[in-house]
Each structure stands twice: as structure tokens, then as C-alpha cells.
């Protein structure tokens, strides 16, 4: 972690700053029906996260968009939203570090 990340941590103790490429093991594993997959990217740009079956076939694309480098997410309240046709649902989540 570079000097900028160290300064960010000093100024904002709740920040998690990562400046390296990485893919963590999903948790829990095994899972049913929900799991979490964490990752970080070193350079900004296009990111894709895909799920494959044992034959190598793509089952689902979970992420397909541009991301900033690293991960900087402080503890706090966040919202997530599902869009499906004209239906929407919103839920609140709390991140504690």
C-alpha cells in the first residue's frame, strides 16, 4: 500500500484502501443460495466477473462494467436496488469493519 493509501487511512480510519489485483475465495463455501465474492483491481478500466460450470461454459456474468482502481468503501449504511421491467425493490445494508 502506497503513501497515498496510508494518508487516506490516517485521515479516514474507516477506509479500506487496496491497490492490487486480487480475487478472494467466495464465502461461505459451500453456499446455498447466496455467496459473496470480493475483488480489487490495480488499474481503472473494464472488469468482468463470470461464473463457469465444470465444462467451462459461462453460467452467468455477475460484473461487466468499468471500475476505479482498488476498493475504497468506508463503514456505513448503503442501499442496493433491483430493476426488473417496471418492478423495482430497494433494501438497506450496513457495512461494519
Short description:
By secondary structure, the protein is mainly beta. 9% of the residues lie in helices and 45% in strands. A hairpin with a 5-residue loop joins strand 4 and strand 5.
Radius of gyration: 16 Å
Number of strands: 8
- N-to-C order of helices and strands: HEEEEEEEE
Instruction: Figure out the total of helices.
Output: 1
Structural class: mainly beta
The major pleated sheet works out as: 2 strands, antiparallel
* Nearest-integer average pLDDT: 74
Features:
97 residues; two-stranded antiparallel ribbon; globular; 9% helix
Explain the overall architecture.
9% of the residues lie in helices and 45% in strands. The protein is globular and about 35 Å long. The longest helix has 9 residues, at 3-11. It contains one helix and eight strands; from the N terminus they run H-E-E-E-E-E-E-E-E. It has a two-stranded antiparallel ribbon with strand order 1-6.
